[in-house]
Input
Amino acid sequence: MNGIKKAIRGVLAFILVLAVLAPSLALAATGDVTSIEITNSSPQQMSVSQTTTLQVMAVIEGFDNKQDVTGGVTWSTSNAAVVTIAKGKVKAVAAGEATIYAQVDGAKAQLLVKVQDKIKSIKASPNSYNFVKGSESTLPKVSIVRANGKEEDVTSEIVWTVSSASAVLESGKIKGITPGRVLLQGKYGSETVKVPVAITDEITKVEVTPAVMQLNIKKSKALKVIGTYANGKTINLSKQVTWTSSNNTVATVKNGTVRTLTEGQATLTGTYQNQTIKAEVTVVPLLKKLITGQKTLVLSPQASTTLSVMAQYDTGKTTIVTSSAVWSSTKPSVATVTDGKIVAVGKGKTSITAKWGNKKVTIPVTVK
Output
């Protein structure tokens, strides 16, 4: 009798060891698998060359909770040219659709996989932010371009995160909490788009230099913009102000630099935070030289003559500037000049000069 009891104890101990060392065997012995499901039951979106790992959970008799049976699944695919599957790892091969099948004992589950061409690029609009603490802005729109050249708007599918607590994400918006720089990151599948965010204190005053300028055609001029904070500190905002031109055919502004195009006038309006600044630009042709009808003059005493002066520009345009030129004579005792009218006074030689703008023309005069 004692021998039988010892034999039973030995068998029980052996079963206990098997249960400890091989829980999967003990699990299988508990009950049958009644159903299984692939945890991602919605269609799987993938791009060519992308991989992902699937998990299978099972309802098993004798267990209250679903059990992970991924390791015991028999996998198959409806189209290996589109996706392959091995040990739960799916690889996208080519654009198209395929169904992944999972089987454990008699239980089955399936998952539709949609594969699109590989993403060539991803971009956000706007691609950067600059705003005041306490203010907020709508999150960027995001688009992707696939290898086949097709562009898609994926804004609604982006998962956004921020790099620090200086900003928070709320209801589709980013809000600045404290001054600093934050990296806003949007994830779409395996792709990530990064948007730098600068959060600043409030600017109370903005000034631009020069506020009034005259430039020639096809010339450039950098605008200097200085902002002042409430505490009196200043910051150079020259590259951060957003500019518009009242006449883009006359002058434009890009990255804080004015570029002139044609003759005319334009008002440049800059905005930063809630501040507005203006700069006036007049575009004029470049004065090349002054021209007179006479190169030399010979007069008799008391004789007189009138000279006209014409301004010639780089555009080929000419203008009569006789009355607005500044006239002078090197020897008024020989000849005088007023608004281009030369009067011979006494015998001798003199030079008559007309100045206009940054140019001048000189005419030798002899009185005899």
